[in-house]
Amino acid sequence: MIDELETRLNNSSKNTRAAALRDLLALAQKDPGLLPAEGCAINMHCHSFFSFNAYGFSPTALVWLAKKLGLQVVGIVDFDNLDGVEEFLTGCNLADVRGSAAMETRIFIPEFADRVTNSPGEPGISYHMGIGFTSQKVNEKGETILQKMRDRAEQRNRNMVGRLNTYLDPVIVNYDADVLSLTPSGNATERHILAAYIDSAKRTVKDQVKFWSEKLEKDQNIVRGLMQDAAAFSNAIRRKLMKRGGVSYSQPNPKNFPTAEEFHEMVISNGALPAFCYLNGTTEGEQCMEELLSLLVSKGVAAMNMIPNLAIPEPCSNPDNSDLLRTRSELLLRTANLAREFDLPLHIGTEMNSYSQRQVDDLNSPELAPLRNRFINGAYFIYGHVKLHQSLGIGYQSEWANSFLPTRSDRNSFYTSAGFLIPPGMPGFQTMKNLHATMSPREILSKLES
């Protein structure tokens, strides 16, 4: 029964997904041993199937995953859309899970037009996030910006499919029929395109090893081995055909991306927080991190996102990897300390939009343990903002915060403290009934503590 209900969590019907979660929670209530006690793990960067999740997880499924893993706090993020925000936060409230919702995109930073930051091989282009949204509904200005972003992304996708169809013929895909059909709300990503071509090849070509060997320009024995591992095979196709130097790759045109100011306006005006996405500290732009953060903070950045499994290579028995592991770990720690100097809370997760990515980071690993408390504080910080923004309209970007908490340091301390004090789910809403928006930060924390 549990397996069947978990499958329904990813159904195309939102009502079916919600009903499956309610049924699973009812089973857990009858059998306390079904779910683990809450642990110390967090994952604030989980892509849902509204962009691409390698496990096929919906926002509702990610709520249940948080319960199964005993996560303290969990957050979703999707590319260029907010379609899963309300479903996810509603599920979190139902399941007594601390949650936050975000959006990711790519922006253009003209001041770094000749330097690569966090988008490999693409000077001036930067992965960026808005974290702590409480609704998928945005104001009129925000909707105009979002629509432009969606239109630009779709045009990039259609151009890519056109180039791939020419190169991979007779394996071709129809963008509307084969790619958009893989998405619940028409928001396709590069990974959906990749999945569509792999499926098309299975239907079209008898000897797939020979076909992919020719197209990837690799020995057939190598391709045969890659095909035994879905993650390795997908990544090999993506690197060869879609990334920089590939047949479908087109160097980004700054006109095809929003500026930091444009994206930040949409994020801030809808109560959320702009966040810079750290890669690994090795690019020319990230080697100038103090300059980069000074610039972005002046434009409104209020937090830093980190993906540890991208920033730090997996430890392995290969001795050649030990120096790289040490260097990347040092860069991660150095950047985290710089973020603290700029009063930027840390926001971490695993993405889950690639088949090789784990479901949760090991915060007790030697590489992450020095930052464990700061990672956890960052999760409670954004959760505290979400709950206060949802219930009282006094989130990080509110006039209330501008009045009572004029500095980033003040806000970070307050919303982190509030996050630790506000229970998850419906108990949290009951707690909020004792608060009102005329209270000072000290009064609110005192009330929460009591």
Explain how this protein is built.
By secondary structure, this protein is of the alpha/beta class. The chain has 3 domains: 1-35; 42-138 and 270-391, Alpha-Beta Barrel (TIM Barrel); 148-242, no CATH class. It contains 19 helices and 7 strands. Strands 1-2-3-4-5-6-7 form a 7-stranded mixed sheet. Helix 5 packs across helix 11 (260-269). The relative contact order is 0.12.
Brief overview:
With 450 residues, this protein is α/β, with parallel strands linked by helices. The protein has helices at residues 2-8, 14-30, 59-69, 85-95, 140-168, 175-179, 190-204, 208-216, 220-226, 230-242, 260-269, 289-298, 308-311, 320-341, 372-392, 399-404, 408-421, 426-432, 441-449; strands at residues 42-47, 73-79, 98-108, 125-133, 273-278, 303-306, 346-348. It folds into three domains: 1-35; 42-138 and 270-391, TIM Barrel (Alpha-Beta Barrel), CATH 3.20.20; 148-242, no CATH class.
